[in-house]
Design goal:
312 residues, alpha/beta, Rossmann fold, Methionyl-tRNA Fmet Formyltransferase, Chain A, domain 2, 2 domains, elongated
Length: 312
C-alpha cells in the first residue's frame, strides 16, 4: 500500500512516525512551504519536514494543490490512501478522487463536536470535561466525513491547548494505526456524523487574546487555557503587555471590581484580579520583554502592581 502523508505542525509528527515504524510505505510527505519566522525573519521549515527528512522520506512543499501540474505530481505517487493531519490546506475534490482507498483525516475533537481549525481550543472554551481524536474519511465540506474511530481523554484543570495537543498527538497516532489497518482490511464500517450535534470554530486572531475583565472569572480562565500557547491571554499595565500564563477561576470570591489587582490571603504565590463575576487567581505572568515568572516573583519586581486596575 502506497501512502501519501499530509501534515505540517509538531503535533502531526507522531502520526507520521507511527506509520513509518509500522512499516507502512510512505511514498511522499506533503507539508507547507518554509515560512519566515522570528525577529530575523529567516525561513523556518515545518516540523513535519524536519521529521520526514530525518526518516529519509520524500518531502513535497507546494503552495497549492489546485494546479494541474501539482495534481499530476500527486497522482504520480499512486497513493492507495492519503493520510491528513493538520496539513493546512483544504483538499479539493480532484485531490480526494486520487486515492482508491480515500483520504483519511486525523481530527483533534470528538466529531461532530468542534469542527474547524481550532478544535481543542473550542473544547476548552466550551468547558468540555473530555477532548479527543476522531479518524474520519475526508469530504469536501470541512470535517463532515464519516468517522472510522474515536478516542477520548479527560481534561485536567490546568490543561491548556498546548498540553492537550501533546497528549492527543500520541493518542491520535495510535488511533490512526488502528483505524487505518481496519479500514484497509475492510473491517470498519464508517459511522456518519449527526450534523445537528456539530459546531464550527474558526481560527482566532491575536487581538482576541486581550482580556475583558468584565467577563466572569470562569470565562476568562477558560480563555487563558484555550489561548495558550497562541495567541496568549494578555492585558496592559502602564503601557506594557502582561500575559497571564497560568491561572484559576475563583467564582466564589467577591470581586473588588473588574480588573482590580489584589492580594489573596492564604494563597501564597498567587495574586487575584477582579472580574465581572468572581476573582481570577493568577500564579504565572509575563511582563512584556521579560520571561514568565511566578506571581510571587512578579510582585517582588513590580510592587506597584497590587492595587492597580487593569487595563492600565
Amino acid at each position: 500500500m502506497h501512502i501519501v502523508f499530509m501534515g505540517s505542525p509538531e503535533f502531526a509528527v507522531p502520526a507520521l512516525e507511527q506509520l513509518v515504524l509500522n512499516k507502512f510505505q510512505v511514498v511522499a510527505v506533503y507539508t507547507q512551504p518554509d515560512r519566515p519566522a522570528g525577529r530575523g525573519r529567516a525561513l523556518v521549515a515545518p516540523p513535519i519536514k524536519v521529521a520526514a527528512l530525518n526518516m529519509d522520506l520524500t518531502v513535497v512543499q507546494p503552495e497549492t494543490l489546485r494546479t494541474e501540474a501539482e495534481l499530476a505530481r500527486l497522482a504520480g505517487y499512486k497513493p492507495d490512501v492519503i493520510v491528513v493531519c493538520a496539513y493546512g490546506q483544504i483538499l479539493t475534490q480532484a485531490v480526494l478522487d486520487i486515492p482508491p482507498c480515500q483520504c483519511i483525516n486525523v481530527h483533534f475533537s470528538l466529531l461532530p463536536k468542534h469542527r474547524g481549525a481550532s478544535p481543542v481550543m473550542s473544547a476548552i472554551l466550551a468547558g468540555d470535561e473530555f477532548v479527543g481524536v476522531s479518524i474520519q474519511l475526508v469530504r469536501r465540506k470541512l470535517d463532515t466525513g464519516p468517522v472510522l474511530a474515536r478516542a477520548a481523554i479527560p481534561v485536567a484543570p490546568q490543561d491548556n491547548t498546548g498540553i492537550l495537543m501533546g497528549k492527543l498527538a500520541v493518542v491520535g497516532a495510535n488511533l490512526l494505526l488502528e483505524a487505518l489497518t481496519g479500514w484497509l482490511r475492510g473491517e470498519i464500517e464508517p459511522l456518519p456524523q449527526n450534523d445537528k450535534e456539530s459546531n464550527y470554530f474558526s481560527q482566532v486572531n491575536k487581538e482576541e487574546g486581550e482580556i475583558d475583565w468584565s467577563l466572569p472569572a470562569l470565562n476568562i480562565w477558560r480563555r487563558v487555557r484555550a489561548f495558550n500557547p497562541w495567541p496568549g491571554c494578555y492585558t496592559t499595565w502602564r503601557g506594557k503587555q502582561v500575559k497571564i500564563i497560568a491561572a484559576e477561576a475563583l467564582p466564589e470570591e467577591r470581586s473588588p471590581g473588574a480588573g482590580k489587582v489584589i492580594a489573596l490571603p492564604g494563597r501564597e504565590g498567587e495574586l487575584g484580579i477582579g472580574t465581572g463575576e468572581g476573582v481570577l487567581g493568577v500564579f504565572q505572568l509575563q511582563l512584556q520583554g521579560k520571561r514568565a515568572v511566578s506571581a510571587a516573583e512578579f510582585l517582588r519586581g513590580q510592587r506597584d502592581f497590587l492595587g492597580d486596575e487593569l487595563p492600565d
